[in-house]
Amino acid sequence: MTSDILIIGGGVIGLAIAVELKLRGANVTVLCRDFNAAASHAAAGMLAPDAENISDPAMYDLCWRSRALYSDWTRKLEELTGLSTLYWPCGILAPVYEESGAGIKSTVASARESPAYWLDKTAIGQYQPGLSSEVVGGWWYPEDAQVDNRALARVLWAAAESLGVELKDGVTVEGLLQQQGKVLGVQTSAGVMRATHYVLATGAWANELLPLPVRPVKGQMVRLRVPDAVPELPLKRILFGENTYIVPRRNRTIIIGATSEDVGFTPHNTPAGIQKLLQQATRLYPQLQDYPIEEIWWGFRPATPDELPILGTSPCTNLTLAIGHYRNGILLAPITAALIADFISEQKSDPLLSHFNYSRFLAQTSTSTSMLTHSANFSNGHHAIVALDNSALTNLDSPLTIAGKTFKSRLMTGTGKYRSIEEMQQSIVASECQIVTVAVRRVQTKAPGHEGLAEALDWQKIWMLPNTAGCQTAEEAIRVARLGREMAKLLGQEDNNFVKLEVIPDPKYLLPDPIGTLQAAEQLVKEGFAVLPYINADPMLAKRLEEVGCATVMPLASPIGSGQGLKTTANIQIIIENSRIPVVVDAGIGAPSEAAQAMELGADALLINSAIALAKNPAAMARAMNLAAVAGRLAYLAGRMPIKDYASASSPLTGTISS
Q1: Domain 1-86+146-214+304-361 CATH (choose: 3.50.50.60, 3.20.20.140, 1.10.1040.10, 3.30.70.100)
Q2: In CATH, which superfamily holds the domain spanning 400-638?
Q3: How far is CA 445 from the centre of its chain?
Q4: CA–CA separation, 375 and 91 (whole Å)
Q5: What are 161-216's pLDDT values in tens digits?
Q6: Please, what is the Cα angle at 498 between 588 and 521, to 5 degrees?
Q7: What whole-number distance in Å separates Cα of residue 30 and Cα of residue 14?
Q8: Is the pLDDT confidence value at 422 over 90?
Q9: Which of 11, 56, 63, 463 has the highest local Cβ count within 10 Å?
Q10: 588 marked ligand binding residue
């Protein structure tokens, strides 16, 4: 059997992808071990990116975008099948108990896309009668919603069937036939099946086929029924409480969930698990203690170490991953389907996918290196991933810390010289940088290439580094630095006091003025700024700036924008050896090899703009610079071999066979 696309996994994620690809004209087959055993049937169907207070910015964006698709997506499925998904935009109420109530009003970021409203004890009691007397208030998330997950699974199956997707239930995939980085077919209980492209959507069972860190997290759940004696549905919105959630359905049932147990694939409900659920639920909403139990069940969530999904490319060129959705598989079904279908059918990779790539587990960045990986070609021609777990590397490095703020990435980028705002956005995502420098004057004057720049980036994810580019005197730089701090506040970074200090009076060579830089730095430090000064590679000036309280020093590698590479190596090494603050190599780097070399010297970070912005493919160059920074840092920490004036055999001479 041969298809265009073969999807391994028949839960909500696999079926959603199948429907989307089929609608785009692909020939699709879905292999499902047991449709009724999929984790999709064991969920509660909450669509709750706000109530769950998701802290990872990329994950929040993914969840928010998916929830925004839900109404139209479910309507389309219902039109295809004539069946209902029971989608219900009911909102979610998150009550708070006395002991956890202090300061709770400040826990939700005001800059998030969705509104959230704090209700005091009186208001929440009026809005939802019957809550425990221990509740002192709570948050109301009006845009969160729910869907009946079991109904959704049935509708997706019916939609796939009506569109002509080939559905094969009761088929177990036993292995992937791989050769030279490609999947040639899948070995199943029904024989070998082949396709042009494959999608892995097997949930908690993913690492039975690939060495990916997806593990099962068991969840037990209970369904109650509202007694006939209660005339109206007492709950009309989800209650998202401390360690429990209560989900009312319009058919007069109420779902209580869910335990979180690291017990592998251990099946069955347990008295301890069910007791815990009922105790927590009845504490929040006491009248549930009198409702009859209709059903108890369990399921296995597919969890990753960082609790984020794995989406997009895999070690095999024709295998796409859609696994590890953990608690949010139902919520993320529509966005996963759209992104994966775009990726496969149109070769279009949404920038958001870069945050969920499998490589984050196979090759940790230098800030927390605990595992190195390499590829091995075995004699049978198969391509395998080999992970070398070395405890000696676990604490090899620590995060970059500047003025008390920590960053995982050691690459900073800029926003100037790009051909378009879109290229700049794509490059910043590809670079995985966390600090982006912005020319305050150019943003304020809407200079060419800077129109709409402040609105083009997500400042919840990226730390702004305002710079005083264009300032020729210390007085100008001080004034612009103050404007930069206000600009950062307006964009939501209230505590951002960073400034990249540039004092450049020479328009031809663009070399920084050491005297003006020192004067401005002294004043800005007094005013509470974290000053990151751009300087010539002058060890004496670097030490003086450190003494006046600068947060970093940023010596140039060669003239700014020249792409000449490292021309000041000896002086940069002296600065690094004598500095007790981070040293950021800034200006002149033109290629990834030069970026790696600067990090091998022991630099703490790099700031690269022109080499990325002026590349033929800026996003690809941004990614290359990211990898170079990581490689250079790891090489520096590893310690290179001594340089010798003579040859030295790689293999020892002892124990050799002699004639």
Answers
A1: 3.50.50.60
A2: Aldolase class I (3.20.20.70)
A3: 34
A4: 48
A5: 999 999 999 999 999 999 888 999 999 999 999 999 999 999 999 999 999 999 99
A6: 75
A7: 7
A8: no
A9: 11
A10: yes
E strand spans, 505-624:
530-535, 554-555, 584-586, 605-608
The pTM of the whole model exceeds 0.70: no
8 Å CB contact between 411 and 623: no
| Rounded-to-integer distance, Cα 631 and Cα 653, Å | 32
Which residue is associated with the tokens 């609608």? 23
Assign 92 to helix, strand or coil. Answer: strand
Report which of 612, 492, 512, 496 is spatially closest to residue 553, judged by C-alpha positions. Answer: 512
Instruction: Select which of 405, 500, 508, 526 is catalytic.
Output: 500
Alpha helices in 503-581 (DSSP H): 514-526, 539-548, 569-578
Q: Is 526 annotated as catalytic? A: no
Cα–Cα–Cα angle for 595, 600, 604, rounded to 5 degrees: 80
Residues 6+ away with beta carbon under 8 Å from 496: 463, 464, 485, 488, 489
- Phi/psi at 520 (nearest 5 deg)? -65, -40
Please, are residues 204 and 39 in contact by the beta-carbon 8 Å criterion?
yes
Weakest mean pLDDT among 507-511, 525-529, 557-561, 628-632: 507-511
List, for residues 44-65, the tens digit of each pLDDT value: 999 999 999 888 889 999 999 9
**Cβ-contact 183, 318 below 8 angstroms:** yes
Q: Say what the pLDDT of residue 508 is.
A: 77
Q: Using an 8 Å Cβ cutoff, are 584 and 409 in contact? A: no
| CATH 3.50.50.60 in the chain, residue ranges | 1-86+146-214+304-361
Please tell me the distance from the alpha carbon of residue 205 to that of residue 6, in angstroms, as a whole number.
17
Instruction: State the CB neighbour count (10 A cutoff) for residue 486.
Output: 11
609 marked as binding residue: yes
pLDDT at 361: 84
Annotation-wise, does 542 bind a ligand? no
Is pLDDT at 542 greater than 70 in this prediction? Answer: yes
Do the beta carbons of residue 521 and residue 533 sit within 8 Å? yes
Chain region(s) in the chain for CATH 3.20.20.70 = 400-638
* Residue 424 scores a pLDDT above 50: yes
Token pair in block for residue 33? 């071990």
Report the share of the chain in percent with pLDDT over 90: 66
C-alpha 78/C-alpha 81 separation (Å) is: 5
Rounded (10°) CA dihedral 342, 346, 351, 356 = 50
First to last CA, the chain: 58
| Residue 50, token pair as written in the block | 């706000």
- Whether the predicted pLDDT of 225 surpasses 70: yes
pLDDT of 447 over the 70 cut:
no
Binding site annotation covers 403?
A: no
Q: Do 307 and 243 meet the contact criterion of CB atoms below 8 Å apart?
A: no
Question: Is 648 annotated as ligand-binding?
Answer: no
